[in-house]
Design brief:
single chain, 309 residues, Lipocalin, globular
Length: 309
């Protein structure tokens, strides 16, 4: 304290002054002051609480509510075209339309027939054939070899030229494809070598070739027609029908029935041999050409040879 304050205090103590005080007013004022202070703390507390809540609440929400995953772009899967199955060549026969880009000469025929493990055909001048394993197929890859060919000399220069070209095609062929029902032989580079149209056995009438054997006679009159899973025809002593199953060059006959008619002994005997062989066939193949041939064979090696009418 300074000197002035000490002097005033001494005077007041020596001569006290009575100041009237309204105790109720003082107490009311004190209560208001206390109430105001409490209210201040309350407002301040609420203010602080609001600030804290604004910080803590998002954190609590983030912890209690699982996050929504961000959208993921689903890759578009391009539609994949199903590749057509590679056809099996065994059991099919074809006639050439062009060789090395040159159309086959009018009045000539070049053909090829695929059997199980074997290949045969003609180049327009000579015929060729292979032993077992002369033809193999693995998908669209093929192998042709171990073939023998007749050595007939053809006077027509055009025929000889296309026969030579076809022989070169057979040596160069490693692959094939079938486009719109046509067979295309390819080399290792995928270059087309020759194009063929399919020769179909169905839809034709086949007559038994007298060359089948002496038992057939000179004009046997025995016929065969193929339509899908059915064969039918003239047995020489009645009409017959049967169910045909084909898998490549493997053929089989079932449910063979014949409606006999009265006929001479020799015709009846010929009909019996014919039907007995037909019931036992296990192999069938066509040889296209100027004079198409259908050859059926039993497991024992007996043959039925037909010519197309």
């Amino acid at each position: 304290m300074n000197g002035f304050e000490d002097e005033v205090r001494t005077l007041m103590q020596a001569d006290p002054v009575e100041v009237p005080v309204d105790l109720d007013a003082v107490l009311d004022g004190g209560r208001e002051a206390v109430r105001g202070r409490r209210l201040g703390w309350t407002v301040a507390g609420l203010t602080v609480g609001a600030v804290v809540a604004s910080i803590v609440t998002p954190i609590l929400i983030a912890q209690t509510i699982p996050a929504v995953p961000a959208p993921v772009d689903t890759p578009t899967v391009a539609a994949t075209a199903t590749a057509a199955p590679v056809p099996r060549l065994a059991g099919t026969a074809w006639t050439a339309e062009e060789v090395r880009g040159v159309p086959v000469a009018t009045g000539t025929s070049i053909s090829i027939t695929f059997e199980d493990g074997r290949v045969a055909g003609g180049d327009g001048c000579n015929s060729f054939g292979g032993s077992t394993n002369s033809f193999t197929q693995d998908g669209d890859r093929i192998s042709l070899g171990n073939m023998t060919m007749t050595l007939k000399l053809c006077d027509d220069a055009v025929v000889m030229t296309q026969a030579k070209a076809f022989g070169e095609v057979l040596k160069a062929t490693t692959n094939f494809r079938v486009d719109d029902g046509r067979l295309v032989l390819l080399d290792t580079a995928g270059t087309p070598l020759a194009t063929f149209a399919e020769f179909r056995v169905d839809g034709r009438t086949w007559s038994l070739d007298p060359a089948t054997g002496k038992w057939a006679g000179q004009d046997p009159g025995l016929t065969l027609a193929v339509e899908g899973t059915t064969v039918s025809g003239n047995s020489g002593c009645g009409s017959y029908t049967a169910t045909l199953t084909r898998e490549g060059s493997r053929w089989s006959i079932s449910n063979l029935t014949n409606e006999p008619i009265s006929c001479p002994y020799e015709a009846g005997r010929r009909s019996g041999v014919f039907l007995a062989r037909l019931a036992k066939i296990s192999f069938g193949t066509a040889l296209p050409g100027p004079n198409p041939v259908l050859l059926l064979r039993t497991a024992a090696g007996s043959e039925l040879r037909f010519l197309s009418r």
